[in-house]
Prior knowledge:
The protein is α/β, with parallel strands linked by helices and 743 residues long. 48% of the residues lie in helices and 12% in strands. Helix 6 (161-175) links the parallel strand 5 and strand 6. The chain is globular, with a radius of gyration of 27 Å. The site of magnesium ion (MG) has 5 residues, from helix 3.
Amino acid sequence: MKIADLPVPESAKEIIIKSGIAELYPPQEEAIKAGALEGRNLVLASPTASGKTLVAELCALKHVLEKGGKIIYLTPLRALASEKFEDFKKYTTIAKKDGRRIRIGISTGDFDSTDPWLERYDIIIMTNEKSDSLLRHRAKWMDEISMVIADEVHLLNDAERGPTLEVVLARLMQVNPDVQILALSATINNVDEIAAWLKAEYVTTDWRPVTLKEGVFLHDEIQYKDGDSRKIEKKTSDSAVNLVLSTIRSGGQTLVFASTRKNAVTLAKKFAGEVEEVLSKPSKRSLEHEAQRILATGERTRISESLAELVKRGAAFHHAGLGGGHRKIIEDSFRQGKIKVLTATPTLAFGVNLPARMVVVQDYRRYEAGYGYYPISVLEYKQMAGRAGRPKYDKTGEAILIAKTPDEADYLLESYILARPERIWSRLAVERIMRSHVLATIAADFAHTEQGLYEFFGRTFYAHQYDTDAIKGLIAKILKYLYDEEMIEVPGDEINATKLGKRVSELYIDPASAVIIRESLERKPVCLTELSLLHMIAHTPDMGPVLRPYSQEIDETAMFMEEHKAEFLADLPNEWEDTVAYEQFLGEVKTAMTLQAWIDEMSEDQIIERFRVQPGDLYRTIENTKWLLHATHELAVLLGNKQAIPQALGLEARVAKGVKKELLPLVRLEGVGRVRGRIIYNAGYKTIEDIKHVALDELTNLPLIGPRLAKKIKEQVGGFVKKETWEKLETEDQWKQTALTEY
Ligand SMILES: Nc1ncnc2c1ncn2[C@@H]1O[C@H](COP(=O)(O)OP(=O)(O)OP(=O)(O)O)[C@@H](O)[C@H]1O
Ligand SMILES: [Mg+2]
């Protein structure tokens, strides 16, 4: 089937054809035949790289241009959202019936907002979480959504992301029963079940445009699924390194999946040492340039420094702890063939298009505290494998698992390569997860009676797979909890959210976190310090895993805890009666100590060394603390807690920047972070007023401040820079210019 023959507006087809696509792939053709362009609901389940996005693009464009509808495109991850945004951007030149151009938006950030500006967009790409939070805020424009594209819908099976996705889809169907749904999925066993839930047709295929050879690597040989085998030169004693080097020799790039952020970084370091040796001179030069860009972008941190160091040597890592700017540089330079090997956590396993001729799955097991090691699912393996051999970049692809013994090789072949992906199951019925969805359903006016709740949750995938009765007991239990905690009121048959309940739902925090925050704020301790609030935050379930002390740190942490006993807003557990709670508490205290060091301006290197914390964990902790302090401030306002309001607000700003209070005015300036802020302050320029009066060259005389940044600082405070001064300075000092936005 030719693109030119499709019943889609010419303007859209032109752009697709111009992008180099003239004919549909077979799975795309089947989707069209199943009625996707006629407004029918459809689940398209087909292999990785089979072009599911184009079906979404065609449907979306037709929908906007012919019906004037509004569309959201849901993705599970930010990295994927930005890739899809780039895919859709090419259509912004098309004019709609009303003469205006199609507008494409993206929204993945701040969960406590209605983003009214999104109203103007026709197609909005967002993460499932963002969509959930917008529905909780009852953003008005969300009622106008007439089509939803749910990408990677098999992630319904994911314990964290799945429930959000199913609740979002159930709500959108409730808000607009006529909403058109297009769900894109990997090949799974029970597509029919998802389709029945969404009242959709379904199409399944096994077709892939580029051959993907899957195999197991043992000693020095790859054994492929089809019986073929291939020897790999044994340059080093490390299997993964040998695979990477052999791919480079054949002119390709490798993507290596690691199980954790830490492993991804360690592996990248290992590869860099070897890859460096085989790089050409021009290659090294362009990598040097990329490394400089990394240092000059966003915050300069331990992560960015080590990333830049690796990029110079042809390797890089990719994980959720990277800032958006850095992520983009890494993805782009991998796409351009500059970086030869990229290590990644499984967050890169879904949907993205990268030129990986070979994917290596380094580790088929994951570790979870409390459970130990468990093997990943076939579905997840297939997703990782599917990043290899993408049509735009390679003619064939290889996905390799590494085995240490012949037995393990057999196991991997049987259990992953030859295995079929499993059925997917709803993960909704977990108390911790249901708690916030039950509250949100009431608070955002999706249901106001117990019956209404059963009806709403009766629309979820969970209810479709099991039945509503299975979830009733859990809902009743949660209602009692929410009532006891004064988040809902029950006048007669009705259930309404209290002011507190409504705000908690909008703040996108677990009601249990809100309870901890409220009770802590009501305690009025002997002395309320920064430590009190930092510990309180670490004590909430939304903080995620705390930073646990190493065995040598335990005594010191326990002593600190004893000394600061009066400041904690929770009771200290007894070490002998409840060991688990005690150890958890110690972890919370260590987390608070680390955060305290951060806002006392201890350098990152020192924090990492002193607390033996991974940079990635430090950033996650800081990010979560910022968000929970925002929630604390909002709750303090609501509860009229006069003492906590300014404290939480000030602390939020300090945690965001990692500075002492005196530096706050300075770090509000763009390009000034904790390091430069301290330099400027110590030089005697302590306020914005001081900066207004300082001469430009006095600023540039300070370390780490080049003329451009100095100019930018002056301009931000409303200062005027004379042309001659500027020209003189610009030529004088070149080297300081590298980093414009720092630290
Ligand atoms: N008909 C076509 N002809 C040529 N190239 C195509 C065609 N359709 C899609 N492509 C290209 O194929 C690549 C893979 O497409 P896409 O990302 O949509 O795959 P997918 O099915 O969503 O895979 P995944 O399951 O990994 O997300 C893209 O680079 C896309 O531009
Ligand atoms: Mg896709």
